[in-house]
Amino acid sequence: MMVYLRTLRFGFLVGLGDFGAVLDWRFWLVTWGARVGAEAVFFSLLGKLIDSPDVLRFLVIGSMIGVGSTSAFWASGFFTADRWDGTYPLLVAAPASIIPPIVGRTSVWMLNGVASSLLAFAILRYVFNIAFPLTEALIAVPIILLTVASAYSAALLLGGVMAPWPAAQNFIRTNVTTLLLAFSGVTVPISFWPGPLEAVAQLLPLTHGLRAIRALLDDGATTTVLNESGLQLLVGLGWLVVAMLLMDRIADVGRANGTIDLVEG
After folding, report:
1. Residue 125's domain spans which residues?
2. HEC secondary structure over 96-121
């Protein structure tokens, strides 16, 4: 366990260095902040356009989680790129699982997703002058973390699935996140969709977290908040377990047939 945690920590430090090379704190605050704010405001403006305070609140909360989740999904691209760059052979050669270094290195994008959600929340609250109770807003932070972490777990699974097609990773990730936002209740209630799609939405990594946050910030029942948060935890763990199994499978197959090094784009 100590070796596992140590590897996880060093993987995170490497990921932090990668992140700093892509987005330093000045660039993050100015350029990334503008991107996050513009994306969140764009979707929330629909509620303003139809002059409905309830719809506006619905879209503000959905947009807050949406931008954070799409940010966390960047982890999938870095997961795939590591294989394309030839990093995996070094990991597979070590007498340990490849899971800790991959999770450690990519988890920085999960933290970026949480920070992006909180930044979007602050921007949207100011732009649309929406009042949220301070206590409930603070309680929402761990639920936001849980929801974005679930999206990150799904991103790890997507990264493993995309590994054979590194050249198409941006196309695949963009389309997957678009479908995720469409069917998880970010911009429209999942009850809008036909029954089969509504059933599938229960297994998506954002659905229950969004319900919990909306119930919390809209003064809903405490039982609803707790139940939906619990379901969000189960769904997130489910995505994480499947992603970890896939990572181990990639390593095992790569060791057996020598395909772990580089793949055709």
Report:
1. 2-257
2. CCCHHHHHHHHHHHHHHHHHHHHHHH
Q: Are 178 and 170 in contact (CB under 8 A)?
A: no
> Is the CB of residue 208 less than 8 Å from the CB of residue 185?
no
| Most confident listed range (20-24, 65-69, 83-87) | 65-69
Cβ contact 73:239 at 8 Å: no
Per the CB < 8 A criterion, the answer to whether 102 and 82 are in contact is: yes
Burial class of residue 93, CB neighbours in 10 A (0-12, 13-18, 19+) = exposed
How does DSSP classify residue 189? -
Query: Does 169 map to a domain?
Result: yes
Cα–Cα distance, 183 to 185 (Å, whole number):
6
Look at residue 262 and tell me if it is in a domain. Answer: no
| Residues 211, 225 contacting (CB under 8 angstroms) | no
Ranking 48-52, 68-72, 217-221 by mean pLDDT, the lowest is: 48-52
Amino acid at 215: A
Q: How many domains does the chain have?
A: 1
- Interhelix angle 53-72/207-217, rounded to 10 degrees, is 140
Say what the pLDDT of residue 19 is: 80
